[in-house]
């Protein structure tokens, strides 16, 4: 899961070359903010909010993570993959039942810029079919694996009706799943919040992420008086628009 400099360049190129697309009219109410399509969104729009996000699950550690989030009364966002989803249906159903936001991370954790249009569509719809079957919802939010995105993929997500979510704080937890190393991820989180970051990238694949990093992040958030919530809510998107 190394994010190479070429991927970063690709993302920067995409950010530089895409412009504000059409906000879909259903979002334009007095209580909500219009959430754009066709561009990468990496920050919350509602002041004072922060969104913890967990990619690549659900996995064997997801139930423990859900317990910790429940203990703190916090809802998070889970960008899930499809390829081993049927091994963790209970965790998937808990994510939805406990009010967290379920979002797409493609079926196979695909590197989307390498795929043709038909395969991009099948990565998204393959996961949609599973989610429809097991939890009865289809997300409107996605995060591209490796944050790898170009203008062509963004256009495809627009066609398919997905808001594309990046991250403004990267904990790099996947490289620090060790009691002696996870403190560096905690430091990255604190530094990121100090720098104004609001959408936090982590993975529910690792023991240290769940038991050490998440607890530390929740304590820090409480200490600062921030409101931790889902990506959609921190974008000002009411719950009826999280899914289609
Ligand atoms: Zn991922």
TrEMBL record:
Record keyword Hydrolase present: yes
Top-level lineage group: Eukaryota
Signal peptide residues on this chain, from the entry's feature table: 1-21
Required cofactor names: Co(2+)
Keywords: Carbohydrate metabolism, Cobalt, Hydrolase, Metal-binding, Signal
Gene3D superfamilies recorded: Glycoside hydrolase/deacetylase
One annotated GO molecular function: hydrolase activity, acting on carbon-nitrogen (but not peptide) bonds
InterPro entries reported in the protein's UniProt record: Glyco_hydro/deAcase_b/a-brl, NODB_dom
Domain NodB homology: 48-231
Keyword Lyase listed: no
Biological processes annotated in GO: carbohydrate metabolic process
Protein name: Glycoside hydrolase/deacetylase
Record organism: Aspergillus ellipticus CBS 707.79
Highest classification ranks of the organism: Eukaryota, Fungi, Dikarya, Ascomycota, Pezizomycotina
């Amino acid at each position: 899961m190394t994010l190479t400099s070429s991927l970063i360049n690709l993302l920067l190129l995409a950010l530089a070359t895409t412009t504000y697309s059409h906000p879909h009219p259903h979002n334009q109410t007095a209580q909500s903010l219009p959430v754009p399509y066709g561009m990468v969104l990496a920050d919350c729009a509602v002041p004072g909010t922060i969104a913890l996000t967990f990619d690549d699950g659900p996995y064997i550690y997801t139930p423990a993570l859900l317990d910790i989030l429940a203990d703190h009364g916090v809802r998070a966002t889970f960008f899930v993959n499809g390829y081993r989803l049927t091994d963790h249906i209970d965790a998937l159903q808990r994510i939805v039942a406990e009010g967290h936001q379920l979002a797409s991370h493609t079926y196979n954790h695909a590197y989307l810029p390498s795929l043709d249009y038909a395969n991009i569509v099948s990565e998204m719809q393959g996961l949609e079919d599973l989610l429809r079957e097991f939890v009865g919802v289809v997300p409107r939010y996605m995060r591209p694996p490796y944050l790898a995105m170009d203008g062509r993929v963004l256009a495809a997500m627009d066609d398919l009706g997905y808001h594309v979510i990046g991250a403004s704080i990267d904990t790099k937890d996947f490289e620090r799943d060790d009691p002696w190393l996870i403190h560096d991820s905690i430091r990255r989180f604190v530094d990121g919040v100090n720098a104004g970051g609001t959408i936090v990238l982590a993975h529910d694949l690792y023991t240290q992420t769940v038991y050490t990093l998440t607890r530390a992040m929740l304590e820090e958030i409480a200490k600062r008086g921030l409101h931790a919530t889902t990506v959609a809510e921190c974008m000002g998107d009411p719950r009826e628009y999280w899914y289609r």
